[in-house]
Amino acid sequence: MSMTDTNDPRLRCFLLIEPESHFPVQNLPFGVFRPRGGAPRVGVAIGEYVLDLTVVERAGLLDAPSLAGRSESVFDRSALNAFMTSGRAVWREVRERLSLLLRHDEPRLRDDAALRREALVPMRDVEMLLPVEIGDYTDFYSSRDHATYVGAMFRGPENALMPNWLHLPVAYHGRASSIVVSGTDLKRPCGQTKPDKAPGPSFGPSRSVDFELEMGLFVGPGNALGEPIPIDQAVDHMFGLVLVNDWSARDVQKWEYVPLGPFLAKSFGTSISPWVVTLEALESFRVAGPTQDPKPLAYLRNPVNAAYDIRLDVFLQPAECSEPARICSSNARHLYWSFDQQVAHHTSNGCNLCTGDLLATGTISGPTPESRGCLLELTTGGRNPMTLPNGQSRTFLEDGDRVTMTGWCQGNGYRIGFGEVTGKLLPATSPAHE
Ligand code: CA
Residue 213 C-alpha to ligand 1 middle, in angstroms? Predict the structure, then answer.
């Protein structure tokens, strides 16, 4: 095997890593963690451990020439931005160094007991933090099944897809300030709603809080204002992916979204998984996406397979239940518009993407009933309640419900996983105003 093939299925770590682990030596996702009594810093997930990059860097084991000569470490920081801005060549080099350092036949860390104790921190002993300082957040709407199904519910089957949908990846500008890391609980939002038959709107806690199963792309270097990123260079600006739960208040959304799109129905909270899985780690799971017909305009034509075969599951756990129930199984390969196309389109007018910007995909639904990525679809807008294993039924989320999303790629004997994004819906704190 090649010294630098970090994706080789035969690679083994000196740590025992189960085949179902999300974090084998082929993955090496980056995150920001706080060890007990310590300051936040950058780490990499490996099996049940976090590898502290500040420790291996100080020990001289991260001797990446591209990082040499910098006065400040890009890892002794509370966000990944400094590393993300350094570009694909640096990401690759660091990945190769880490892959080598963790291999079963590499003694430098394996045989240094003191260094291992300092550098490999059990995951259960750390707090995972928001990995990136996120300046801007854009949410696309790139699953055809989701757009068709939801569009049919809101506007009837003949107007399900708007005329522009098959020609461009539509999106709205989201709110970066309310993006939270997995494990953060959110309050049921209050908002203005107007039921169809009500004479006017009222203000109070949303009655139809939903989740949306999405993935998010973190932008690496980004582009200068006025200089679009051509689609064949988009990958150089794509640092990695996370799981995203775009919590949504459907009753607020329904009343507010025309004509300018979602606003307060979305901005009360968006949850992301803490480990950023790099595009390098996902390279073996690149597949052809859905056939695009009509053919997109030239600036959106992908030269390569640009979808990813990532299994995605959603679990719902009511407050009084000890076990979560799986309520959705989907796959990122269903996305009609790829990440490359989103980046090319976003910058096609000269808009500058910046390091740390988050581009989310929109709800990832597939063609089958169990692959619908939100309750709005799973319960047909609340008209067909779903029954949970404990006998309870749900149309939308109830107070105390925990939503957990997981995702992984299945390799030959190993998984490239994203861990999870989880969060609980807490009761609204404001009194209801009817
Ligand atoms: Ca969304």
Answer: 8
Q: How many CB atoms lie within 10 A of CB 60?
A: 8
CB-CB contact of 362 with 139 (8 Å): yes
> Do 273 and 294 meet the contact criterion of CB atoms below 8 Å apart?
no
Which structural domain range is residue 273 located in?
A: 137-426
Verify that 121 and 170 share a domain, yes or no.
no
C-alpha span between 215 and 53 (Å, rounded): 26
| Residue with token string 């973190």 | 218
Asked if residue 387 and residue 260 are part of one domain, the reply reads yes
Predicted pLDDT of residue 431? 60
Smallest Cα–Cα separation from 10: which of 413, 391, 434? 413
3-state secondary structure of 402: strand
Distance 262 CA to ligand 1 centre (A): 9
Whether residue 345 lies in the annotated active site = no
Count the domains in the chain. 2
Task: Name the H helices within 111-172.
Answer: 113-119, 144-155
How remote is the CA of residue 274 from the centroid of ligand 1, in Å?
A: 19
Contacts of residue 136, defined as CB under 8 A and 6 or more positions apart, other chains included, come to: 173, 176, 353, 354, 357, 358
Alpha carbons 160 and 62: distance in angstroms, whole number: 52
Between the CA of 403 and the centroid of ligand 1 the distance, in Å, is: 15
Q: Any idea what the Cα angle at residue 14 is, between residues 8 and 16, rounded to 5°?
A: 95
Dihedral, CA atoms, 87, 90, 91, 92, nearest 10 degrees? 120
Question: How close is the Cα of 332 to the center of ligand 1, in Å?
Answer: 14
Give 87-143 pLDDT, tens digit per residue.
999 999 999 999 999 999 999 999 999 999 999 999 999 999 999 999 999 999 999
Domain assignment present for 104: yes
H or E segment to which residue 408 belongs: strand 402-410
Q: Phi and psi for 359 in degrees, rounded to 5?
A: -110, 110
- For residues 370 and 334, the answer to whether their CB atoms sit within 8 Å is no
Residue 63: the pLDDT is 77
pLDDT of residue 432: 52
Q: How far apart are CA 329 and CA 364, in angstroms?
A: 10
- Considering the candidates 146, 237, 334, 345, report the single residue annotated as catalytic: 146
Which helix (H) or strand (E) segment holds residue 99: the answer is helix 88-102
Q: Supply the CATH number for residue 286's domain.
A: 3.90.850.10
